[in-house]
Design goal:
The structure holds three protein chains of three kinds. By secondary structure, chain B is mainly alpha-helical. Chain B has 18 helices and five strands. The radius of gyration of chain C is 27 Å and the shape is globular. Classes of the chains: A alpha+beta, B mainly alpha, C alpha+beta.
Chain lengths: 163, 442, 756
């Protein structure tokens, strides 16, 4: 069965079982590495992508359910050569150890910033609650998000972000 | 999601009109009775008692009773200091904010005497004489013994005082005028202190005392009349509403696919999940949270009492053994739902999935799929739920971002046909849209 | 070069692209301190005078090659686990060769290309490989200078380098490294005394170079083994009972074989896997097979679930072999105050966010395995024995996985993939474990127990110290087929090898049981328990987590009883200056002397350890706030100081210590694998919750001590023990309640505090 997907602005017609979770289609058919398999149970957030602007677990999203809807992955935010704002902030803060959780973290954080460009610390922590990191990179992830907020506002010096 | 334990104030939007009508009735009666009964005197302030004034056993007993009453849930704001109040209780009439019940003299109950506390718990009157909204279930607390109220008082008065002024309620006119509540009480506040039934054993009586009093189970699991008071008699425990969730009947009309026993209730109340029933979701989550920390014997007693209700109070439910699943038939009738199930749900809920090989309940035992209305199932799908007893325990992720209303409807139809033999749900898409709309309200 | 490898290179998975001919690798043999003291097999020591891994691979060209165009390729047997080793080793090589780091390509563990350096574990990478590369590079720079000097006819000492990959003569003539290298053979043994660059001249080492692996990880680049896609690749899933030691009774093989898209079902002995064209098909087939009933032999029983008493009872029931670790007797005054206490830790899961994965490809009698195991060369040994192939017919290549904190499922999944690949020759097989499989099958970090008894004399000096520790081996690293699940399931099975302790000074369950402090009359014994009720092996810091927790808790218990400041009792018993320095640095930055005094809710705690008494020094101070109503502990701020010798990359060190602290707070405060009678009952994140964002500290700060030119000391695991103990000490300071059984969970703390 053919499913038409719109991922990062590009359309793809794919011949797949519509029950297939979006995660496997992104990774295996579209060869996008950003979304990761962490649990397949909606518990870790490693697979987070945006569907029509909202963060969702791609591991629990049947691909047939998102035909024709806007899907965005971390690849859609920028590239190593031209990183998006959050990616840049994560790079500056060196906010990764193994990095396996990070693409999901960035997508989760992006959803917050899209909705609320100036979240406070408690809002950031509450929002990021959904995603797990085992390496203990949390403090840097929080710093990177604060840095992105500051970069966007352009009012704070980068130093103020560190604390 | 805001939580409240007092059901009628959080009824679904469709029923708001009924409540307003009820409210008007209350007003009329209230005005009539106003002059004579609305006035309650203030009680003199005391200085906050010291910890040493209470025996350790009293404090321990108070802690256990407070856990059963689950005071902490309503009296703690999201992410706030325990017992300092400030939780928003959204109602169709506006928003109530719970108050600070720490012993801070200015903003809490630090200057309340035991008598003032008991009057609040039984008559719904604050120390200064103003009437309290029945979001505080004083109709139930009237049944609590004196000594137990003393213990709870001791417990609360030994919390760390927190300065947290009450937030002003935001209610529609004229409900902000508290003396009106006197009328409501005149009509509905007649409960007596609990008296044990001699034909029942001690555990049953203990359970009844706790469930009817502090536990106020029927506050959600019984229907309410137009004025928002609980129905009693044969209608008691025939199912109610809480925060838009259906609170299933606990009497003979219980829709549970597998009848509850005292053991399965105990497991459920203690851990939030029982292998032959679903997991505690919605407002039942905080109840279980409190009970998971209450004394085991008390929770067993409550389970004993609640399990007896279905025998004691006849209902309408047919008692069928566990249903065989009708997987192939369901997929034939609802192919779209079957496909969605395979991609979105099967990873946890299909045979061979980790939850299933680890003894968590299968969907054919989940009560939400057996109810007359699909709202609980739809709510669980859209918003998911957290593990009730802390980070460990059954939880469900939300699907609001990934599934459209049509897809939720397809999925719900499939679930109903596969896991229940009851009549198919109707108007599912509208129901999904309604629930989604309610949930997106702040 | 296999077609698979070439396509892999084309996709840019391996840095450097060009194939480097392998040669000059050390003959394989088993060394005294195999695997760098961390278990596993490892190479023999051939040149004991050399430093780091040069001892076993002394030839320079095994480590460093310089092309005609000046590009440098450096080979390491260690692997990137997210600890930033790629960047740190690149910095070491660039510094000592005196070239820009961008000209250095690093090749990590590959059985046909790099030296065998044993496991990447035990915080050994900088000690072993960093030291080897540093000395090899110094040798190479010395040789280049000598060769240039010969050509120019000037004394060698007068030839200098300028950080640009060129050699300079005093008169201004220059020669590029590439030109000089072309005239030289590096196939010679290193000498032990090649002069190292002076720390004051450092251009790269000690700088905060951004990590080379991070950009791809932020942008969806191909960063992990999981991201490899080889032409013709098939997807497999392996099928077992829900936890290690269980087996499925009658899986519906026929039903699965008929599923569209299933290529084959591999069943050999007790081993069962499905192979499909698509990953989703493989998963559905696996779930179908998993419906089968499972069983587990009744004995040995799984560990008892729950309390510290249950952990203790499980361990106490096992036969023990007693190993004396330390026994000193000195004259000391009489004891005036003594404390005796038992501490426990439950079984803990690694819980990598990405379940283990491997790709195997069997072509023309040769098996290639891409693995994220910590022991790439051990994977070759395991696969060779398992499949009955000669070792030369097995090529194991490391590719990055999700964070690895010890022996998780990586080795098992590599063996699983190889078994499947041999059954489907010619097609690359990608196998990833499912979340519940990782939880159910990986070796756990062992449950442990200690009993300590210590006494203070009248002068507040410790006059006696007894420490007994009970533990299973933490060292079941597979070096043969019996060490992996597929080997145990083979017909006939390769038996699970008997567990062995790792001898001190590294130790396993005994790790860090020997206090670095000077206590009079110290008796330390390791009750080694070889019979394992649950499958266990190495988890970050091994026994140091509980041993340091115990020692540092006991010091506070003694100090509290005698009214001594926790910092003072430590300094009073510490002679090692570097240890004193990190304690001082951490507490100074923390503001220890001005700290808020424990008031029932807030409190502070500190702890110290030198990892294995050989690695990095680390001191941690925490301020906590306890919610007395719920027992929830919030770490308001955390400060650590760490001395790891010359830091290759101080930000890299901070990143690792920050991570170690947060992870240790999760382990210590939250985690315990649950057991039912017939299985592990922790199978997902709802049954094995770890710390989330709302529970991580308010702030974490790490002071990295500046030790210019000092030998590298392993860092990654140094924070685990001290953080655990600092947490217990801070809780005790805040509430007066001493928790001795991990996890120091809100429920336990609440129960201990009582209703008020
Ligand atoms: S992989 Fe989707 S939430 Fe974990
Ligand atoms: S950086 Fe490794 S899991 Fe987050």
């Amino acid at each position: 069965m053919t499913v038409t997907l719109t991922v990062n602005g590009a359309d793809h017609a794919l011949d797949v079982d519509p029950a297939t979770p979006l995660l496997y289609v992104l990774r295996d058919d579209l060869e996008l590495n950003g979304a990761k398999y962490g649990c397949g149970l909606g518990q870790c957030g490693a697979c987070t992508v945006h569907i029509d602007g909202k963060p969702a677990f791609s591991c629990l999203t049947p691909v047939g359910a998102v035909a024709g809807r806007r899907i965005r992955t971390v690849e859609g935010l920028g590239s190593a050569g031209a990183p998006g704002l959050l990616q840049q902030a994560f790079e500056t803060e060196q906010a990764a150890q193994c990095g396996y959780c990070i693409a999901g973290m960035i997508m989760r954080a992006q959803a917050l910033l899209d909705r609320n460009p100036d979240p406070d610390e408690a809002q950031i922590r509450a929002h990021m609650q959904t995603n797990l990191c085992r390496c203990g990179t949390h403090m840097r992830i929080l710093r990177a998000i604060r840095r992105a907020v500051a970069l966007r506002k352009g009012t704070q010096s980068a130093q103020e972000v560190r604390r | 999601m805001k939580r409240t334990r007092w059901a009628p104030w959080r009824a679904g939007r469709g029923t708001a009109g009924r409540w307003v009508a009820g409210g008007v009735l209350v007003c009329l009666v209230g005005i009539g009775a106003f002059l004579g009964i609305a006035y309650r005197s203030g009680l003199p302030p005391v200085s906050p008692p010291k910890v040493e004034t209470f025996p350790a056993e009293t404090l321990a007993r108070g802690a256990a009773l407070a856990a059963i009453g689950d005071c902490i849930v309503c009296h703690t704001a999201d992410g706030g200091v325990p017992y300092a109040g400030g939780r928003a209780l959204a109602t169709p009439f506006g928003t109530l904010y719970s108050t600070n019940i720490t012993p801070d003299p200015e903003t809490g109950i630090g200057t309340w005497s035991t008598d003032a506390f008991k009057r609040a718990m039984r008559d719904g009157v604050s120390r200064d004489g103003s009437h309290l909204y029945p979001a505080l279930p004083y109709d139930h607390y009237r049944q609590v013994h004196d000594g137990d109220l003393d213990a709870i008082y001791a417990f609360l008065m030994t919390r760390a005082p927190v300065v947290a002024p009450a937030r002003a309620n935001d209610l529609i006119f004229p409900l902000g005028f508290r003396p009106l509540l006197a009328g409501w009480k005149l009509l509905f506040l007649h409960q007596e202190e609990f008296t044990p039934r001699p034909d029942r054993d001690a555990a049953w009586n203990r359970g009844a005392y706790l469930a009817e009093g502090l536990g106020h189970c029927s506050g959600c699991h019984s229907p309410r009349n137009l004025a928002g008071a609980e129905e009693t008699g044969t209608k008691a425990y025939s199912g109610g509403l809480a925060e838009g969730w259906a609170a299933p009947a606990l009497n003979g009309s219980s829709p549970a696919a597998v009848p509850w026993t005292a053991d399965s209730l105990f497991t459920y109340l203690r851990t939030g999940v029982d292998g032959r029933h679903g997991a505690a979701a919605g407002p039942m989550g905080p109840v279980v949270h409190g009970l998971s920390r209450a004394p085991e014997a008390d929770v067993r007693a409550i389970a004993t009492y609640i399990a007896s209700l279905s025998a004691d109070r006849p209902g309408t439910a047919p008692k069928t053994p566990a249903l065989p699943e009708r997987t192939a038939e369901a997929a034939r009738v609802n192919p779209a739902g079957a496909s969605l199930f395979a991609g979105a749900c099967a990873g946890c809920h299909e045979d061979g999935a980790p939850m299933m090989t680890q003894g968590r309940p299968g969907l054919s035992t989940v009560t939400a799929l057996q109810l007359d209305r699909p709202d609980n199932a739809i709510r669980a799908i859209l918003q998911g739920f957290h593990a009730p007893t802390g980070p460990a325990g059954p939880a469900m992720p939300p699907f609001a971002a990934s599934l459209t209303d049509t897809q939720v409807a397809d999925l719900a139809a499939y679930l109903r046909s596969r896991f229940s033999d009851r009549p198919a749900w109707t108007a599912l898409e509208t129901a999904a849209a309604t629930v989604r709309q309610e949930e997106s309200q702040p | 070069m296999s077609p698979a490898l070439s396509s892999l290179s084309r996709r840019g998975f391996l840095a450097g692209g060009a194939l480097v001919v392998s040669f000059a690798l050390a003959p394989r043999a088993f060394a005294q301190l195999a695997g760098g003291g961390e278990g596993g097999a490892g190479p023999a020591v051939l040149a004991p005078d050399l430093k780091g891994s040069l001892k076993s691979t002394p030839w320079l060209d095994a480590w460093i090659r310089i092309d005609g165009d000046g590009r440098v390729t450096v080979f390491t047997g260690k692997v990137e686990l997210g600890q930033g080793i790629r960047t740190a080793l690149t910095q070491v090589a660039a510094e000592e060769l005196d070239v820009p780091p961008a000209t250095v390509t690093l090749v990590t563990a590959d059985t046909e290309r790099t030296p065998d350096e044993g496991l990447t574990a035990g915080s050994h990478s900088m000690q072993d490989s960093g030291t080897a590369i540093q000395n090899a590079a110094a040798n190479v720079r010395m040789l280049l200078a000598a060769e240039a000097a010969r050509g120019w006819g000037v004394p060698t000492e007068e030839v200098t380098t300028g950080g640009d990959g060129r050699l300079h003569a005093p008169d201004g003539r220059v020669l590029a490294y590439g030109e000089v290298a072309a005239r030289l053979s590096l196939h010679m043994q290193a000498v032990p005394d090649a002069p190292l660059r002076k720390p004051s001249d450092y251009r790269t080492l000690g700088r905060e170079l951004p990590r080379v692996d991070i950009p791809a990880k932020l942008t969806g680049g191909a960063a992990y083994l999981h991201d490899m896609r080889l032409p013709g690749m098939l997807h497999a899933r392996v099928v077992r009972g829900p936890s290690a030691g269980t087996s499925l009774q009658a899986p519906d093989l026929d039903g699965v074989a008929r599923m569209p898209g299933v290529v084959t079902v591999v069943r050999q002995g007790g081993f069962l896997a499905v192979v499909a064209e698509r990953q989703w098909t493989a998963i559905q087939a696996m779930r179908h097979l998993q419906r089968a009933a499972y069983g587990r032999p009744a004995s040995p029983p799984l560990p008892a679930d729950g309390s510290g008493d249950a952990v203790a009872a499980t361990l106490a029931a096992l036969p023990a072999r007693d190993i004396a670790i330390m026994d000193t007797s000195e004259p000391a005054g009489p004891a005036v105050r003594s404390v005796k206490a038992r501490y426990t830790r439950p079984w803990i899961s690694h819980g990598s966010i990405g379940p283990s994965c491997a790709i195997a490809h069997y072509v023309d009698g040769t098996m290639t395995v891409w693995t994220h195991s910590q022991g790439t060369f051990d994977v070759r040994r395991v696969v060779a024995e398992l499949l009955g192939l000669p070792a030369e017919r097995v090529h194991a290549i490391h590719a990055e996985g999700a964070g690895c904190y010890g022996q998780n499922g990586a080795d098992d999944v590599a063996a699983d993939a190889a078994v499947i690949a041999r059954a489907v020759p010619g097609r690359p097989i990608r196998l990833q474990w499912m979340r519940e499989q990782e939880f159910g099958w990986e070796p756990l970090g062992p449950g442990m127990m200690t009993e300590l008894e210590a006494a203070l004399g009248a002068d507040n000096r410790i006059v006696s110290w007894r420490h007994a520790v009970w533990s299973n081996p933490h060292n079941n690293r597979p070096v043969g087929a019996g060490g992996v699940l597929a080997g145990n399931e083979a017909d006939p099975p390769f038996p699970v090898p008997e567990g062995k302790p790792i001898p001190m000074p590294e130790g396993d369950g005994s790790r860090n049981s020997n206090p670095l402090y000077s206590f009079a009359n110290t008796h330390v014994v390791y009750h080694f328990l070889k019979d394992m009720p649950a499958r266990v092996s190495a988890l970050r810091s091994l026994g140091a987590h509980l041993n340091v927790f115990s020692i540092e808790s006991m010091l506070d218990e003694l100090a509290a009883g005698a009214g001594i400041d926790p910092l003072a009792i430590r300094l009073d018993h510490m002679q090692d200056e570097r240890a004193r320095d990190v304690m001082q640095a951490a507490t100074d930055r923390f503001g220890w002397s001005r700290r808020p005094k424990g008031d029932g809710r807030r409190g502070c705690g500190m702890a110290f350890a030198r990892y294995k008494n050989l690695g990095a020094y680390c001191a941690v101070a925490l301020e906590v706030e306890v919610d007395r109503e719920t027992g929830r502990v919030l770490v308001r701020r955390a400060v650590a100081a760490v001395d790891c010798g010359q830091p290759a990359n101080p930000d890299g060190v901070r990143n690792q210590i920050e991570g170690a602290m947060v992870q240790s707070l999760s382990w210590t405060g939250r985690e315990a694998v649950r057991f039912a009678a017939d299985r592990r009952a922790s199978f997902d994140w709802s049954s094995y919750p770890i710390l989330r964002f709302d529970d991580v500290p308010g702030s974490v700060e790490v002071v990295v001590m500046d030790r210019p030119g000092a030998p590298f000391l392993g860092t990654a695991e140094a924070g685990q023990g001290p953080t655990a103990a600092a947490l217990a000490n801070a809780i005790a300071d805040a509430t007066g309640v001493r928790l001795r059984d991990m996890p120091l969970s809100p429920e336990r703390l609440k129960a201990a505090i009582g209703p008020v």
